Amino acid sequence: MTGRDLERRAAVRDPARFSPARVGAMVLRHWYLLRSSWPRTIELVYWPTVQMLTWGFVQSYISQKSSFFAGVAGTFIGALLLWDILLRSQQGFTFAFLEEMWARNLGNVLMSPLRPSEFLVSLGVASLIRLAVGMVPVVLLAMPIFGYNLFGLGFGLAVFFANLMLMGWSLGIVICGLLLRQGMGAESIAWSLMFLVMPITCVYYPVTTLPAWVQPLAWALPSTYVFEGMRAIVIDRTFRADLMIEAFAMNVAYGAAALVAFYRLLDSARANGSLLQTGE
Predict the structure, then answer these.
(1) d(CA 131, CA 95)
(2) Which of 104, 106, 186, 213 would be 100's cystine partner, CB 3.0–4.6 Å?
(3) Number of Cβ within a 10 Å radius of residue 160
(4) Dist CA 3 CA 10 (whole Å)
């Protein structure tokens, strides 16, 4: 008997123990779902590609008319690709959850030995897979078409990626809690919430562009620090570690708050008998 078999047996005997095997089973379920459906795969690549082409050509046009933008080529495409990482991480998380509701499989998942923490971890891994499938081809296409290499951000890219993923997951966790409590009536939040965040988080312009009374709201979002940090690298050739530390601290606080909100919504759904509510 191998060590892996012993680990599986221990997890079965002790359902309270966190089980990587159960997480892996859920991740495999989402991987097989994605692999067996080419329309899902194309949809993941389609929108990021369309946006990259649109903003890439806009940037090319502006660069021809403005010496400033010619000198900071890549600002728009870089901002767009980072924005897509934030958007797809949140949507990938919640859409993986919604797959269970659309398939009317949520009841089976909740009645299985799978713990809520394992369910959330599996959704996070599933969102990483969906993000990789959707974004890697777009990042590679931007190189020959517009001469933009996202990896040119260097170490900053890894820090930006981590902060954006953490923020996307925090929002995704809260939305999943709302879906458990409110059912499919909360589905539109999964699609639209990030577009409410977009103008405030200053994807394509500095925070100073916003009215003074909106700027505190912008600085309350970790993603704002990432986009300001990206502009500091592209325009000033400076990596702002202070911005990234502040963003990470906020992500830790928001992540903890999101988990508390999720478990409270889960308890509320259990108390009100709405766990199996898949309608509106």
Answers:
(1) 12
(2) 106
(3) 26
(4) 11
- Token pair for residue 28? 């495999």
> b vs e for 112-128, b when ≥16 Cβ sit within 10 Å of the residue's Cβ?
eebbeebbbbbbbbbbb
Three-state SS letters, the chain: CCHHHHHHHHHHHCCCCCCHHHHHHHHHHHHHHHHCCHHHHHHHHHHHHHHHHHHHHHHHHHHHHCHHHHHCCCHHHHHHHHHHHHHHHHHHHHHHHHHHHHCCCHHHHHHCCCCHHHHHHHHHHHHHHHHHHHHHHHHHHHHHHHCCCHHHHCHHHHHHHHHHHHHHHHHHHHHHHHHHHHHHHHHHHHHHHHHHHCCCCCCCCCHHHCCCCCHHHHHCCHHHHHHHHHHHHHHHCCCCHHHHHHHHHHHHHHHHHHHHHHHHHHHHHHHHCCCCCCCC
> Which range is least confidently modeled, 25-29, 46-50, 184-188, 196-200?
184-188
pLDDT tens digits along 24-64: 999 999 999 888 888 888 888 998 899 889 888 888 888 78
Give dist(CA 77, CA 203) in Å, integer: 11
Report the C-alpha gap between 98 and 105 in whole angstroms: 10
pLDDT digits (tens, 9 = 90+) for 114-142: 999 999 999 999 999 999 998 899 999 98
CB 92 within 8 A of CB 130: yes
Question: Cβ of 16: how many Cβ atoms within 10 Å?
Answer: 8
Cα–Cα distances in Å, from 185 out to 100, 122, 188, 225? 15, 24, 7, 32
List the Cα angle 124/127/129 in 5-degree steps: 115
- Token pair belonging to 192: 């639209």
d(CA 55, CA 77): 6
